[in-house]
């Protein structure tokens, strides 16, 4: 029989930096009192990030195609090959969107798209090298293991060769996209044509071994069990252990451009139920999300950063997460079409993000992809002042999910 004393002693061990087992994490997730759970997670956050800084990044998600052969059941963004709503963007349009992002202060682009049946390694080489040539200052934090497996198959090369070639072409960092739920049962239900969770992690480990680090994500709320949620965390922690054993040491804040290696951060987000084949399924509640956030901070003794997904949970829950172990609010997302297509309608701008952080009694700071601080806003006098940048609201699903050309970002009227 579990007692309150058992829960207290696990919380204390986790708060002090000791490792907790998956069974203990499940116990905390399902039974620990919320305040005690949040307090323990916040203690861990303070140890990783003692200055009390909470970061954000300015970036744009640019979609190169919505054509996809993988037909994930939760996805509202893709169109099957030959579907009349399928589209792909040429390099000119992608560069135009990059230029707009740079204009608004972006330091990173996330190039994201479907598994187009004709897009092999050569396509991605030309995509990344084209963006790097035009905008060497932009960090390319893009694609995920699923795209790497797809391009390797189309080009009939090994995973290692695909990774080496896209790295040489300019890919700086791999996004944690496509993790969804890693355990087999929920993954098969969500994305029957996608690779297994184990394969997803193997490709991440292969990229880490070649010096490309990444993030890790989790989509919660499609009917998976509490045990499966904790199993997802375990699978990621084991691969991060591998990265650490190879000498990639996670650190709280890196020097600019320093390779931390492995998974830099963990980013859980909540499934959005519109316009897809899973419509009607239960969504994760705010409480489930906050509890998961806190357990993740306690469980990941080897991952430096934890990001809240205000885009899917809303800003109030995003701010609350700052008291449950979170140290990063991600991006204002100058453009986002994939999750927005499934119903995420929360919008924000830099004014709001900075205010959310400051009113949570934290110090806001703009970061780069590797969490190096670019500007720390210790007082309101340190806040960014370029009105076009600070007042620009994140976009919600551009027309056609980003289709068409010359669709300008809906810039605010600053007058
Ligand atoms: S989630 Fe990605 S791989 Fe799955 S259908 Fe959508 S675009 Fe394709």
Automatic annotation (TrEMBL):
Which amino acid positions bind [4Fe-4S] cluster, per UniProt?
Answer: 68, 72, 75
Q: What is the top EC class of this enzyme, as a single word?
A: oxidoreductase
Looking up SUPFAM superfamilies in the UniProt record yields: Radical SAM enzymes (SSF102114)
Pfam families the record matches: CofH_C, Radical_SAM
Task: From the UniProt record, list the reaction(s) this protein catalyses.
Answer: dehypoxanthine futalosine + S-adenosyl-L-methionine = cyclic dehypoxanthinylfutalosinate + 5'-deoxyadenosine + L-methionine + H(+)
Annotated EC: 1.21.98.1
Q: Which domain of life is it from?
A: Bacteria
Q: Which family does it belong to?
A: Belongs to the radical SAM superfamily. MqnC family.
Gene3D superfamilies of this UniProt entry? Aldolase class I (3.20.20.70)
- Report the cofactors: [4Fe-4S] cluster
Task: Cite the annotated pathway.
Answer: Quinol/quinone metabolism; menaquinone biosynthesis
Native source species: Luedemannella helvata
UniProt key word Transmembrane helix:
no
* Name of the protein in its database record: Cyclic dehypoxanthine futalosine synthase
Say what the protein does. Answer: Radical SAM enzyme that catalyzes the cyclization of dehypoxanthine futalosine (DHFL) into cyclic dehypoxanthine futalosine (CDHFL), a step in the biosynthesis of menaquinone (MK, vitamin K2).
Q: Radical SAM core domain: which residues?
A: 54-302
